[in-house]
Amino acid sequence: MDFSKIDLFEGISGEDAERMMSCFGASFRKFRAGSEVCDYSGSGDDVGIMMSGDAVMIRTDEDGEIAVMELFSDGDIFGEVLAFSNDAGDSVKVVAESDCEVMFIKYAAITKRCERACEHHSRLVSNMFGLIAKKTLSLSRRIEILSKKTTREKLMYYFGILAKNYGSEFDLPMSVTRLAAYICADRSAMTRELSRMQADGLIEMEKRRVRLKKAV
Amino acid sequence: MDFSKIDLFEGISGEDAERMMSCFGASFRKFRAGSEVCDYSGSGDDVGIMMSGDAVMIRTDEDGEIAVMELFSDGDIFGEVLAFSNDAGDSVKVVAESDCEVMFIKYAAITKRCERACEHHSRLVSNMFGLIAKKTLSLSRRIEILSKKTTREKLMYYFGILAKNYGSEFDLPMSVTRLAAYICADRSAMTRELSRMQADGLIEMEKRRVRLKKAV
DNA sequence: CTCAAAATGTTGCATTTGCAACATATATAT
DNA sequence: ATATATATGTTGCAAATGCAACATTTTGAG
Questions:
Q1: CATH architecture of A7-138
Q2: Could B122 and A121 be called an inter-chain contact, meaning their C-beta atoms sit closer than 8 Å?
Q3: Which of A29, A95, A183, B107 is the residue whose CA sits 20 to 30 A from B53?
Q4: Contacts of B216 in chain A (CB under 8 A)
Q5: In this structure, are strands B91-96 and B55-60 parallel, antiparallel, or unpaired?
């Protein structure tokens, strides 16, 4: 098991990490692409950590509407208590997109101090703390985007963020179709707006390559 | 100083909490209503904990547009690293709504183990962990709401959540005007939609009292 | 109480958007 | 290579929404 690339175990040696697993009641499971990793429809207080592969969290409401809530890859953590609420009682599942391996930990085992008071426990809590903080950042960024009134404003705000990080010319970190889902706009309507933005001289676009022409 | 009602110090006696303050480089400051509690326009890695009173986090963008991002009252925590990103470089400030007292802690002091390894440090980290988890819940709930396409769907989803918690008849936890801001809809357009929903027999509304008639 | 400020409710209108129905291009599997 | 699935781009149209302008009510300060 390779812990070195998992942020959750940063600062903890592989041997120590292995040793700690018993404190957390950790279990490892492998999944085939397409299979169900877990189901949060009932109450779920497990935390999952992606050790390898990719998975998606999918919500299905009573009308059968399907929504992709989050995407997970190496090192990402997920769990009901961590990043979503299911007040509406919808079906929420995590499904493997590729073959993957997942480590499960009891949420309670993380927040409670273990009886043996193993020395790395608090380090791991700190690491998880940082991961959640990172998640709240991405959530609040998305809220900022969604709070814009028009599709154009959403796109310009999002492009502005990317430009801050990568310069005025950058590649979209996702497909155009996924971008539409991310900003909660109709894909065809968004494509139309992108065309208009090019016509209006705000951006230039070639496949996923975007050049932001307006100063932000 | 009364720590008993602050979730962050749950499970830690008042005396112990006082004693721990030095580990965290904690400072206490009082603010008059209307005054600026802190400015996150630059980089800010302080975490604030509301000890008493109320405050709001306000974002002002380059066009002078003002947006209320979050409301804080007793026990709430805030900080750049905790729940917002400022990639757009906007001005982000916390302003006191009433006279209030705030405790500031260095973020780094929380995630690092203190040299003295005081015994309540990890308990406090766990508590803060829980607070952030609660915040991610409310953030992701809001994303769920904002991801609905129409104002009616947003309202029905939100009302459904409230109904799950309080039964099919409940009071809105905020003013109608604030509700419009919360779901990112134009106030007058939202009011119009609420009227239509009543006409269509989905809800009954009297001031902030709502009765959800459709089974959810 | 009195007055001003904030909240609420209504409506016309122009803009934006979702939706459906396409055509085409690209990626992936066999 | 070939076929199939997925991604992308376009457009007409009806529905939803923001916006402005206004009347009315409620709240809060003095």
A1: Sandwich (2.60)
A2: yes
A3: B107
A4: 88
A5: antiparallel
Interface residues on A facing B, Cβ-Cβ cutoff 8 A: 67, 69, 81-85, 87-89, 110-113, 121-123, 125-126, 128-130, 132-133, 135-144, 146-147, 149, 157, 160-161, 164-165, 184, 216
Options 2.60.60.20, 1.20.58.90, 1.10.10.10, 3.40.190.10; CATH for B148-212 is 1.10.10.10
pLDDT per position as a tens digit, B58-96: 777 665 556 677 778 888 888 766 655 555 566 778 888
B7-138 and B148-212: same fold? no
* Closest nt to residue B149, judged CA to C1': C18
**Residue B173 CB coordination number (10 Å):** 12
pLDDT of residue B100 exceeding 80: yes
Residue of B82, B88, B157 lying closest to A88 (CB–CB):
B157
Q: What is the DSSP string of B88-106?
A: T--EEEEEESSSEEEEEEE
From the number of C-beta atoms within 10 Å of its C-beta (0-12, 13-18, 19+), residue B92 rates as: buried
Q: What is the average pLDDT value for chain A, to the nearest integer?
A: 82
Which residues on chain B are in Cβ contact (under 8 Å) with A184? Answer: 146-147, 149
Residue with tokens 């690293």: B81
